[in-house]
Each structure stands twice: as C-alpha cells, then as structure tokens.
Amino acid sequence: QAQLTESGGGSVQAGGALRLSCAADGAMHSIDTMAWYRQTPGNQRELVASITRAGSTSYADSVKGRFAITRDNAKKSVFLQMNSLRPEDTAVYFCNVDGISGFRRGSYWGQGTRVTVSP
Q: Distance between CA 99 and CA 76 in Å, rounded?
C-alpha cells in the first residue's frame, strides 16, 4: 500500500500563512495528478487545488489568489502554500495522488494534517 506523508499543518491567526507538504514513498511511480482536499466535520471532502504532471493547476474559487500548489516530480512531492488564511480555511487537509503502487494504478490519500485559523 502506497504511503503519503504530509506535514506543515498547524495553528495560525487570520492573515497568516502555512505551507503544506506531501511526499509519496519511493515505491510509487508514474504519478499523474496530485491534489489537496480539505474536510470539516459533517461535510464532504472538497477539492482545494490540483496540479497535473505537466504543471497545469486548478483551484477552488474560495482559495484563488491566496493558495498556490506546486510539485517536485523528482521528489514525488506536492506542496500547498496558503497565504492570507481565513477562519473558514480551518479544516483537515489531505493530499491525494494518482499513481502506480504495487503494479496498481489508484488514487491514494495521505493521513491528513490539521489547519486551524483563528480570527
């Protein structure tokens, strides 16, 4: 089973910034789209941002202009720079990777990292 290791969550005041990181383990390859999702209690997981292998990005309207997703293909990593954070950005953030692990292509999830933004 592929492993994705996330880091970078924490607590900040509104207007602050955080940078999330997610690295796929060495066994994963042929990685295509990488993405960040977030989830709040009682709600479905929502797509925050995604990036293709070629570098094309897409963002949820609520984060456009504030968040930036990047990736390092050589390190099998994806990053989410979050600026001008708002209390409504508070959530558990999950990375998601479309890749091959153990001869199987699938959509793999990280364990989640909590982001808390106080007013």
A: 10
Tokens found for residue 96: 């998601």
Q: Are 103 and 112 within 8 A, CB to CB?
A: no
- Say which residues have a Cβ less than 8 Å from residue 49's Cβ, sequence separation at least 6: 35, 36, 57, 58, 59, 60, 63, 67, 68, 69, 80
Rounded to the nearest integer, the mean pLDDT of the chain is 95
Tell me: pLDDT of 82 over 90: yes
CA–CA distances in Å: residue 38 to residues 1, 17, 60, 101: 22, 16, 11, 24
Give the span between the Cα atoms of 10 and 80, in whole angstroms.
Answer: 13
Say whether pLDDT at 69 is over 80: yes
For residue 1, is pLDDT > 90?
Answer: no
Collapse the DSSP code of 84 into the 3-class scheme (helix H, G, I; strand E, B; otherwise coil) and give the result: coil
113: β partners = 93
